[in-house]
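queue> holo job accepted (adenosine monophosphate)
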Amino acid sequence: MKRIVSSVLLISLIVSCLCSCANQKERYTETYLEYFDTASTIVGFEFDAEVFDKNCDFIEAQLEEYNKLYDIYKSYQDVNNIRTINKNAGKEPVKVDKKIIDLLDYCIELYKTTKGKTNVALGSVLSIWHDYRNMYSEDAEGAKLPPMEDLKAAAQHTDINNIIIDRENSTVFLSDENMSLDVGAVAKGYATEQIAKALEEKGITNYTLNIGGNIRTIGPKGDGTPWITAVSMSDIAGNGENPVKVELAGQAFVTSGTYQRFYTVDGVDYHHIIDPETLMPKFDFISISVCCADSGLADALSTATFNMTLEEGKTFINSLEGVEAMWITADGEIHYSDKFSEIIYEK
Ligand code: AMP
Ligand code: MG
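queue> job finished
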């Protein structure tokens, strides 16, 4: 009798094990290279590939739409985007999709939260840096810095109050003809957040959206364990090793780094984040990573803290509920906000 009972137990154990194996979600990935001028990688755990493919179709359609709307460099047929608003500065209000108005509302709010350290109306200054970077990125010998008088003249046209939003008619008007919008600090993270929220509303979980390094996790991995991601430190480690890894389950993790876009003048690397006060890049950090629930906020804060000192940035981040950050200073030192240790993966 004892033997029969143990055999039955053994068989039921094997059956339940087989069932749970069949019930396990599998890991799928997809990469797109067409959006936001970067690689977008989707990782998802699903029971079958078809569901993953269908969800990727949805994500790709959203990426395509947000990319067109938030583009400052390209025009698209039948779409009024940020570039259309810039081209009509001082001329007339432009009718736009609500997704543009929502982004600009968010940027204006962030201007206040970050005490002006991220300014979506800084386009006139940023476009000068962009042009010099493009002009000299292949020509380290002849590379020049933008003349300060040009930057100062452009800075006269960066007043965020000159963005006139008419919500009722869904229009945006830049009342200063020499101003322009640059949404580069926030748009990718904000779009990623909207897509993640749409997926969550559909009940989708166990996904990660990695849009050019803007990471937004939706739930944990398929087996319920957190996602592990490494902080990019190839710049200082030199050997591609990543000594800091973090665990994520539902949060965003976004890094701004000097190595992402820069050009070299007289041996000095000038990166793409510009301090609105000095109109120059700051050289205090190699990268700053921010972790919080919202990827739009993480994107904005990783850019904003670049324009603060380490102490200012720490005080600022520690004052925000549910936001943690990690700084790698120019000399390779690593600093953390008060509770960053809670997300460090140490195994
Ligand atoms: P990120 O890679 O998210 O840190 O964003 C960098 C991009 O944000 C730059 O390439 C510019 O397009 C834009 N940007 C740079 N400095 C600022 C600033 N002070 N305020 C707003 N946007 C900025
Ligand atoms: Mg950013």
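queue> The chain has ten helices and 15 strands.
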